[in-house]
Amino acid sequence: MRIRRVGVADRAAEEKPGPVADEVAADAEELQYVDRTGSRERAARQIRLVDMARRLPQLVRRSVALAWRIDRWAALGLLVCQAASGAMQALGLLAVSGTITALLSGGDIYGRLLGAWPSVVLLAVAAGVRSALGIVVVWLSSRLGPQMSREAELRLLQAVTEVELSAYDAPGFTHRKEAADRGAEIVQDLVGEGQDLIASVASLAAGAAVLTALHPALLPLLALASLPQAVAQVGAARVRYLARLRAGGDYRLLSILRWHVCDRYAADQVRAGTMADFLVGRYRQITERINRADRRAANTGARMSAVGAVCGGLASAVVWGTVVWLLATGRMSVGHAGTAVFALQTVGTALRGLVAGGARIMRTGLYMDDWSEFLTEAGGFRMRRGTLVPTAPREIRVEDLVFRYEEAAHDALRGVSFDVRRGEVVALVGYNGSGKTTLAKLLSGLYLPTTGAVTWDGVPTGDLDPHAMWSQVALVPQEYARWPLSARENITLGRPTEGGDADVHDACARSGADEVITELRSGLDTVLARDWLGGQELSGGQWQRIALTRAFHRSAGLLVLDEPTSALDPLGEHRIFAGLRRIAATRAVVLITHRLTNVAVADRILVLDKGRVVQQGTFPELVAQDGLFRELWTYQHTRETHQPEL
Ligand SMILES: Nc1ncnc2c1ncn2[C@@H]1O[C@H](COP(=O)(O)OP(=O)(O)OP(=O)(O)O)[C@@H](O)[C@H]1O
Questions:
Q1: Given 113, 126, 173, 350, which is the most exposed site by the fewest CB atoms within 10 A?
Q2: Global pTM?
Q3: With a 6 A CB cut-off, is 407 part of the ligand 1 pocket?
Q4: How far is the CA of 353 from the centre of ligand 1 (A)?
Q5: Where are the beta strands (DSSP E) in 373-481?
Q6: Could you tell me the residue range of the domain that residue 403 belongs to?
Q7: What residue intervals traverse the membrane (predicted)?
């Protein structure tokens, strides 16, 4: 090996970003979060005063129904408290009227005070009861809200596990799932917002009743006067929501970037790759995009609110002018005029609360729609398969199989036909991207064919009950999950066998995980997770042994091993392949590996190229034939047997 001495000047030249580094291709793709659904944008455009008036009762009903299902006593308590609070408000307004009338009546001051005190007491009692009810409302809402969100999240989890795996390949699905996730999180706001709305309606009803009793013209006039502000508020809420909606993808990008920059998995690469400035710069770019959109929305919202306030102010002047006119022309007593002032303020505040709260609950309602629509449809990808329950398959047959991923431009597999029987090991080999993993997923029924068929003992995988079928599949994928669970649960996957720990230890002995388990501080009880989750960490190869143990522990008819020894040391790898024939005695085994020495263990080898099977046969047959397998074998074999110069 030649070592070049790097001087200071060389290093400076390397570190200085040259023209190439600075250059950004004009047609380079920009990182963006793709929403192909557009449904929320359409829905958000419909936030108008008329739609709001139509939709609000439905949303309040929905929030009450949800609350009722989760905690009916809390829901009932909230409704009763709000109704009582409204009644107290009406009582308070009447007490104001009584107090003012008594104070302005004839007679000496003591007599007037004496006449006013019952109303003052009533006023104090009404105010006291209202604030006590307010405390109860906050208590019940904060009890109910989080419960509703947790319930919504649970139902979302359930729905997600019931969709086809292919759903994850469709961009629309990810977006709907994210939206539903946000909907579940926000469901708890519905309680508070529903309560605010009911409180506003109760105040409005109380104030309106008093105002109408004072003079019938006042209420319609006030309603008219509040209209401009209501329209402006709803408009501003729509603008803000749309801006948030459009920036939603960018917010998501930020959280993805934050995760990549901060998470431990890439911390070494961020440093060694000197990527910090570059990544933070990307983050800043996206932040600036969001800030620009926020500023635009804030400016538009402020303009709308200002116009609404000016129009509303002028209209309010008309209302107050009317009160003065009624007073001046003797059509209203001074006591009633005083009450009217309070009632007008109450009704005005309630109307503004109704509109602002209405806009908020409409927005929450849109998020909730995302959640409930996702639950109904599971993002449009709910599994709709047969109900036949399979036993361990004796033969899995693939006939003229074609498979194309959602939105992909080309087929990943084309015209593939072969079979694999119980007791047989079939190996899939080929270049990266030739379709091996995809084919294994089709054999396991994780994907269904686009055309052609995959059958288990003659039954197409689409006709089988998916969960029953997967209980017959033991899969070691290239990227296996590292569950933050105990070592035992990581192996049994929540399905312990009758043999209990004896079976677990037996599977460990076959995979080589026995050496891993003995070194764990609490054996099978040790939680396998990062330190900060209270667990003990494993190395990459140790995790792969655990992943293999899972498959060996499961009594399944189909064993799929996708690069099962990529992280194992030579001894560990030898152990797996030496034991494979014994494991295959009762199962059909599909093995994917780039280490061609290992495929000698297979009964048959299928060579894939660009989604097609270009060769098949036994190891000696394929080595003897001209073709891709011999090319790959010769290249690998020559390299492996080549002795490095010392
Ligand atoms: N989720 C996906 N969505 C769209 N295309 C995909 C997806 N997964 C794989 N592909 C494409 O399908 C083709 C086959 O991929 P597959 O993972 O089956 O290859 P492979 O032979 O297992 O590769 P490797 O040896 O690298 O594991 C590739 O062209 C790949 O880009």
A1: 113
A2: 0.74
A3: no
A4: 55
A5: 395-403, 413-421, 425-430, 451-456, 459-460, 473-476
A6: 385-472+558-646
A7: 73-96, 116-140, 305-328
